[in-house]
Design a protein that fits this description.
Blueprint (H helix, E strand, L loop, with lengths): L1 H13 L31 E11 L5 E11 L14 E11 L4 E10 L5 E3 L5 E4 L2 E6 L2 E8 L2 E8 L5 E2 L5 E3 L7 E18 L2 E16 L7 E11 L4 E9 L4 E9 L5 E5 L3 E5 L3 E2 L6 E2 L3 E5 L2 E7 L5 E4 L5 E11 L5 E9 L8
Antiparallel strand pairs: 1-2, 1-13, 2-3, 3-4, 5-6, 6-7, 7-8, 8-9, 9-12, 10-12, 11-12, 12-13, 14-15, 14-25, 15-16, 16-17, 18-21, 19-20, 21-22, 22-24, 23-24, 24-25
């Protein structure tokens, strides 16, 4: 598996030299349409389905993450044979056991192959061997059988999709082409089971789904990004992210809040700042992460607190990345409270994409 993963990474590295015009573009003014856009968009360079959530069980609280990445490998499209790596699929999964203070995670990588590894167009249906994420009627089902843990979850939307950016056109940098199509589904109601070391736990909670696809790499000066998605206790939803340079400054920053009535507010640029309040350094890798930032949005502060500090994921055997991604609580203005996930990338080295 290690050698196969390195072979896949070699194919991914070629993508950095493939010109933008070789892929389907991301343009403003496109109307996202469902269920069509729940599915895969294989003409674009990169795409991901990203589910995070916090769960309750009789044995204590848990955080979880399931992510599938699809990458179009343009350089392989003229190679003959069904085993040609024209489309690549990566998957990450993790469970945070809050009471035990322990994160379990696993990863996979493969080329798309018949009925074993695939992404479907027109509806969410993603499979990497026995790891799956698919829509079943109005709900999602995900099944993960990983090293030391397993999940089988039903995720039911309680709100309409949240179109990020301008109607789903989400800028990621100073140039217009540095953008993605991007929507979220906050406040997914979750039921199911999580097994840790072979012992099942019945779970219930809330989750957040992001689906994003793009063809442009990050700006040349970008090294990584910080992202927060939070389900607020008043049924509102908060998304904040910034693309970061090597000195810790923001190449691009934006925030979006939707309240329970569906009213959306947006901020960008200097109105969105991340101020580290506390850092955690990994004893395994030596990387230091700002795990407890204060995020200033339009002059108001949101304080982020990790449920445990050690939520570092080492995905260098699949996507080539080392990052922190974990369950957090948020506290904001006028007593606002919420739960979500914080992602911190590019703190060890520049993200390869």
């Amino acid at each position: 598996m290690r050698l196969f993963s390195l072979g896949v990474l070699g194919a991914v590295s070629v993508l950095s030299v493939t010109p933008l015009w070789a892929f389907d573009p991301v343009m403003p003014g496109k109307d996202l349409s469902f269920p069509r856009d729940y599915g895969a968009h294989p003409g674009h360079r990169i795409e991901w389905w990203y589910v995070t959530g916090q769960l309750e069980s009789a044995q204590g609280p848990l955080g979880f993450q399931v992510t599938f990445f699809r990458v179009r490998n343009k350089e392989a499209e003229n190679l003959p044979g069904r085993f040609s790596p024209r489309q690549l699929l990566f998957a990450h999964a993790a469970v945070t056991d809050i009471a035990a203070g322990k994160l379990r995670h696993d990863q996979r990588a493969a080329r798309l192959l018949g009925g074993l590894v695939y992404t479907r167009e027109g509806e969410t249906d993603v499979r990497l061997d026995d790891w799956t994420l698919r829509r079943d009627g109005a709900s999602y089902r995900t099944r993960i059988d990983a090293d030391g843990f397993a999940m089988e979850l039903l995720l039911t939307p309680t709100q309409a999709p949240l179109l990020q950016g301008d109607g789903g056109f989400s800028r990621k940098g100073p140039r217009p082409e540095q953008a993605s199509y991007y929507y979220s589904e906050p406040h997914l109601e979750v039921t199911g089971r999580v097994a840790l070391e072979g012992r099942d736990r019945a779970v219930r909670g809330r989750a957040w789904l992001d689906h994003e696809w793009s063809s442009e790499l990050l700006a040349a000066e970008a090294t990584g990004w910080d992202w927060l998605g939070a389900n607020l206790e008043d049924d509102g939803a908060l998304t904040v992210f910034r693309v970061r340079d090597a000195k810790g400054g923001s190449v691009w920053a934006t925030a979006l809040h939707r309240d329970a009535a569906g009213v959306i507010r947006r901020w960008s640029g200097a109105d969105v700042t991340f101020v580290p309040q506390r850092r955690w350094t990994s004893s395994r890798t030596g990387v230091s992460y700002p795990v407890a930032p204060r995020i200033e949005i339009g002059g108001e502060a949101w304080n982020v607190t990790p449920l445990i500090d050690d939520q570092e994921l080492d995905a260098r055997a699949s996507t080539g990345t080392l990052y922190w991604e974990g369950a957090v609580r948020v506290a904001g203005p006028r007593g606002a409270q919420g739960r979500g996930y914080l992602e911190l990338t590019g703190y060890s080295e520049r993200v390869p994409f």
